[in-house]
Description:
Blueprint: E1 12-15, E2 18-19, E3 27-36, E4 40-49, E5 60-66, E6 88-93, E7 103-111, E8 115-117, E9 120-124, E10 136-138, E11 145-149, E12 153-155, E13 166-173, E14 180-187, E15 194-202, E16 220-227, E17 232-239, E18 245-255, E19 258-259, E20 263-269, E21 284-296, E22 299-310, E23 319-324, E24 342-344, E25 351-358, E26 364-372, E27 389-396, E28 420-421, E29 424-425, H1 435-452
Parallel strand pairs: 1-9, 10-11
Antiparallel strand pairs: 2-5, 3-4, 4-7, 5-6, 5-9, 8-12, 9-11, 13-14, 14-17, 15-16, 15-18, 18-19, 18-20, 21-22, 22-25, 23-24, 23-26, 26-27, 28-29
Amino acid sequence: MGSKKIISTAAFALVAMVAGDVGAFDVGLLDVKVYPSMGSASFVVEVVNNESTTLPAGTAIELGIWHKPASLSTQPCPISILAPSPDQTATLTLTKSLNKGVSETFDLKYNLAAGEYRNTRFWLNYQGKAGEMDCTFSGTGSATANGYAVPTFTVKEPPKDPGTAEITSFVADTSADPQVIFTAMVANTSQNIAQNVMLRVFNHVPNGQKLPVCTDTPDGETPLGDIASGATVKGQIIDNTMSNGLYSAYVIACGAGIESVPKTANYSITRRDASNPVTQKPDFSIGSFRAQVQSSGGSTRVVFTATICSSVAFDEAPVQVGIFYDAPSTPQCSAVPSQEPVLLSSLDPSCRDVSFTRQNVRAGTYTAYVVIDPDCQHSSRELLRTNNSASYAYVVKDDNTGCVGANCPCTGTNCGTQPSVGGGCAVASSPSMPLSALGLLLFVLCAARMRRRLAGGC
């Protein structure tokens, strides 16, 4: 009860009686609290026993409630003429025996029309049940009063089911250059009408940005009106302002109390630029990329060959192609190529090969990258950058040992288990001693020893 908001001034009428032969009794309305809500109101009624005798559990007390009583407080007790009849009635049955001065509370709830209630009154024993000894009215409640006027309260309009607007499909059609036609199917699966539905499109939502909601400003919208229960309607939004690129469009349906879950569609535009109808945005790409390891005269070089392609002719500015000998991942715009980039003054709507050479390469395992426009000078002119790079893993072995890397044991035929030297394996430079020479040496040593000793042997 402590969490409820209590209204302190009043307009409702309520009345009760005792059922069953319990002898003379005297009950009173000690307190009535009202808790209005949307479309209903809850009442907490406290009834007290004023009789010296105990009212047993199971005693039933009648209660009447009037919202617009006609001089009810001036009528005699028992009320012989009910004008009008109560709007609600209740039977309050004691769950415990009540000694004199002991009370019990009852929770009641009724659906009520929206509006303000100024004269609601509660009355106990309103039918004049025999045995009720006292029948007085108090606007504030007391142990001896049967009538009670509650404070003015307001019942709010209950929320109406707004219906639903579920987007069942969404596509973006770019075939009608220069237009992008967004088409969505919106269904109302509820039992009520979805009112004033508006279809809204958001052309591009970057990764990591929150999904659009109805309060956001859309890039385009179209009204769908009211959608009947079980109906599906089609909505279209046309946009001819989008520039070339890849996009993730979102659509949502908004209405009176309605906000659908956003639905997305990915699409790309490769039409001619509105600012330059003669020129289309190019799409640079890597057709192929390879590395060839070549060894000669004790040194190793690597020749890289990349096939550079463009979707359309491009000659607005030179295009650089950069090589990165070894990189852990795709180089970004701030990365500096390993050698001076190749400069292409123009590109045709075809492919061409460019080559790079890396000299004096030490043994090891590498991953090379080739990047078109490595400094991102053409990022605003180009359609896509995701296909501007390619990688190729290659291995360089030691010329003498066939070893790879700076550590042994090695895999080459002459490596053995020698320690590493300069990225390869060190190999003993002296030839192996023949077996005959070893025998002669042993003979000389034995002869010398025999000369120093008079006896003994080897």
